[in-house]
Amino acid sequence: MPPVRRDSVAFTVVVTVTVVLCAAVMLFLLGFAGAPGTVLLATGFAAVPVGPVVAAYMWLDRYEPEPKSLLVMALLWGAFVATATAVVIDGVGGVLAGLSDNASLAVVAPLTEEATKGLFLFLLLWWRRAEVDGILDGLVYAGMVGIGFAFTENILYLAAAYNGTDGTAPGGLAGVTGTFVIRCLFSPFAHPLFTSFTGIGIGIAIGSRRPAVRVLAPLGGYLCAALAHGVWNSSTIYGFGSFVLVYLVLMLPVFVGLVSMAIWARNWERRMLTESLQDAAARGLIPATDIGWVVDLRARRLARRHARGAGGRDAERAVADYQQAAVELGFLHSRLLRGTAPRDWQARGQDFVARIAAVRPRFAFPGQVVPQR
Predict the structure, then answer these.
(1) Which residues are CB-contacts of 350 (< 8 A; sequence separation ≥ 6)?
(2) Per the structure, how many domains does the chain have?
(3) Are residues 22 and 81 in the same domain?
(4) What is the CB-side half-sphere exposure of residue 125 using CA atoms within 13 A?
(5) Do residues 228 and 82 share a domain?
(6) Are residues 234 and 276 located together in one domain of the fold?
(7) What range defines the domain where residue 352 resides?
(8) Do 320 and 218 share a structural domain?
(9) Of 80, 89, 86, 111, whose CA–CA distance to 18 is shortest?
(10) How much is the pTM?
(11) 161 within domain boundaries
(12) What is the pLDDT of residues 321-370, one digit of tens each?
């Protein structure tokens, strides 16, 4: 294994310390959201959409699964850092600027919330650039941050609805039910969707060799995220039609567009991975006969089942380790061919090749008698 880079350590320390401090702030704020029973009820309602939305992003992230530790960090950043910072800045900024609640919700909130959510992605771009290979990775990390943010924000809104202090709900179960339907059932993808624009900008920057694009793409993504967020908030405040109309005219088309882009990006990743591994095979880095068992998702599962039947759990784990290392090598090799490889590409590449060589003799793919060397 290559030595852990200092920038990776710095990223982990900064994110962990910030999450812990902001978690304390949010727990303090949640203590004022209502009685413990109310907060517990709101938490239960807010948790309902989390699993399905996370599963949707995990489905997209199957070719090259991101490190689980980073995905958890993204969720925690959204749940604590982004929410705590946004609550403080929104409150202080609205007071100092003399803005009304509606103006603050339509202008200040989108700018600050998308900035605090997007900051995690910018930290990835700055310190963990090698972990983000393109638009799809940007979408996945943005989605995780947005899911975490929506979860904590929904707790606050649901608790206020139950207490009848949000100015719109009658309180009690009737109030919390209406808020739950609107925020957790009709628009669970709202915050992930807004932050996805920043993620797309980060992904474009990663794949570009032009310095101007590397700077302007993330900035443009953030501005688009804030704009989309601001239009959504303004629509619910100033009445650009009913909620259902706004949902159909604004949220649904944007959601469908981003889903289409995500599916396109995943299909593109498959083609890119195939081409890069073919080039790697021509250079002797991986057997060409193995590429199909690495690129095709169904073939991956079949290979693992075959290995488990032939050699037990150890062989299955060897296949999984081999496939993961080969995929990582393919993405790294593609970035090298495009001229956008990370600074430590040689150490990373040597590590992937060593992992491949270490586990390949321990199994055979279906139809093979002995491992292909």
Answers:
(1) 2
(2) 2
(3) yes
(4) 25
(5) yes
(6) no
(7) 271-362
(8) no
(9) 80
(10) 0.86
(11) yes
(12) 999 999 999 999 998 988 888 888 888 899 999 999 999 888 888 877 54
Show the tokens assigned to 142: 């943005």
198, HSE (Cβ side, Cα atoms, 13 Å): 32
Q: What is the DSSP letter of 164?
A: T
pLDDT in tens, 61-108: 887 788 899 999 999 999 999 999 988 887 666 555 556 677 777 788
Report the sign of the C-alpha dihedral through residues 335, 339, 343, 346, in that order: positive
Domain boundary among 195, 216, 238: 238
3-class SS at 242?
coil
- Among 215, 238, 261, the domain boundary falls at 238
Query: Are 276 and 232 within one domain?
Result: no
Q: Which two structure tokens, joined as six digits, stand for 141?
A: 């990390």
Task: Give first-to-last CA distance, the chain, whole Å.
Answer: 22
Q: In which residue are the tokens 């090298």 written?
A: 336
Q: Could you give the CA distance from residue 367 to residue 7 in angstroms, rounded to a whole number?
A: 44
Determine the 3-state secondary structure of 266 from DSSP.
helix
Asked if residue 304 and residue 203 are part of one domain, the reply reads: no
Same structural domain, 134 and 217: yes
Which residue pairs from 18-24 have beta carbons closer than 8 angstroms and sit at least 24 positions apart in sequence? 18/77, 18/81, 19/73, 19/76, 19/77, 19/80, 19/81, 22/80, 22/81, 22/83, 22/84, 22/85, 23/76, 23/80, 23/84
Indicate whether 371 belongs to any domain. no
Q: Tell which phi-psi region holds residue 275, choosing left (phi > 0), alpha (psi between -120 and 50) or beta.
A: alpha
Sequence length of the chain is 373
Contact criterion met (CB below 8 Å) for 188 and 53: yes
> Tokens 């399905």 appear where?
52
